[in-house]
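Field: COMPLEX_INPUT
Field: COMPONENT_COUNT = two
Field: RESIDUE_TOTAL = 584
Field: MODE = joint
Values follow.
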Amino acid sequence: MAGILVVAEPQGSGFRRVGLEILSKARELKDSVGGPLAAYVGGSGVADQAAQLGAYGAEKVFVADHEALGSGLAAPHVDVLAKLQAENDFSAILFGGTVQGRDTAAALAARLGAGLNSDSTDLAPGGSGLQATRPAFGGQNLVQSTWTGGPQIALVRPNSFQASESGGSAEVVSVTPEISEGALRAKLTGRKPAEEGKVSLEEASIIVSGGRGLGAPENFAVVEALAASLGAAVGASRAAVDAGWYPHPNQVGQTGKTVSPNLYIACGISGAVQHKVGMQTSDVIVAINKDEEAPIFQFADFGVVGDLFDIVPKLTELINQRNG
Amino acid sequence: MKIAVCVKEVPDTTAEKRIDPGTGRLVRDEGDRMLNEFDKYAVEEAVRLKEAGAADEVILISLGPEKAVESLRQALAMGADSLVLVSDPAAAGSDYLGTAAALAKVLEDSGAELVLLGSESTDARSGVMAAALGEVSGRAWVTAANSLALNGGTVTVERQSDDGVDTVELPLPAVISVTKAINEPRYPSLKGIMGAKKKPQEVKSLADAGIDASKVGEAGAGTKVLSVETPPARQAGQVVKDEGNGAQQILDFLIEKKIV
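Field: COMPLEX_OUTPUT
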């Protein structure tokens, strides 16, 4: 067993930030794990961007180029990664917690009979290699886990580490994808891209969320305007989603998504347990609510008791002025 | 055609929960237990396919403590036909590997062509079971279906991907996880609730189900909990009343924190 393999997902002509975050962290872990720090880039037409990962610490980048690897479906990647693992015997394989990352990590781990630590917010040397930290129940508990064998496969929550360049360069190794018929049974036949400039909730470093206090679906416009001024993603509480004011994929909370942005701004959200467990691991929480008794003020870093329809548009204007 | 829905009993989502620092496992005796909320969407979709004549039987498959039958009965009340629950002291502490191995064995024996799951459970929140089960059972699989249509031996799925909504086609037999966008789960009717008690509910030990005990529980786990800490709860910060300058105060705070 030797080395760490970081799976970096291509996005446009670059990479999803979570892959760069993990590579940056893996630089710190590489000496205690031993062996080289490698990266895997699988996609369609991605050969040219692979070398970029050298700047984040990858010493070797395995590139696999195939139409099926750009489908967003995981099974073709599992075939390629299983073969890479058979040839290189990595000690650890690290994925970002995206839809594709989660699917690929789970199916690869199942194929290898390997342990999988999901939703890791920290990785550290420990035991026979690494140990992972996972917040349980929205951070009320922090669980330290290790693996019973290798390879040690982990999914890392976006925004857990800072992406930073180390100024290195990588050897790019082109891999011929050998994809089985079984992995091609599920086929991509169409794609509707998300709106340009929309940030995904899990990866966003700032989230502005709206709740019951918005009162009506059209009032989400004030939350969206603030989000746009900050380059933020828009979230919604369960109450707002259940009322049909905002779509399900934007729901934050126990029955929605768990997020850990640098900044979470809650507008008109009371902060019941259901919501709290989905966002309380955010670095900084700001709350705006007209009810001074709202539970959210018990765990927000900065709270304003007042009318969100006054405060949020003013804040948007102030930030837009600052942005010039 | 037979549809299997994988379901799980979880702690009540509205209650505070904790992990036993000694065993590293979820404390299971506290408060109310319920059917995992995300599973209701998979059950609803299966029942709708049956009502539309696309399927003739909906079976539920689960792994968990014996008394989980009571929570899982809600899925029978929604319209599923029967339940197989694998319950065995040796299966306690199963991670995703053990759970996938157990579910795959029951599936193999069930003859189900389509397997549906919720996107994740509200307790573990890993969201990895559909992919693991697809892999272990050797079936075609896809996750995060916002909609699903059956045409003969093919399923067409609109899925929530990282970059938008993708259309994916896959052949049966298949494993598919569904999102909350797929439907609005029904509330069971009184008739459904009364009828649920009479539907077949089989509790099987590992031996009954023919599952290799070395593959499940702690024996089959690929991960091990080292410790469970309870970090100090988040403290309340500064709370101010808006006197007309609330927005400015938020901005000042964000500048102080170097966020803007």
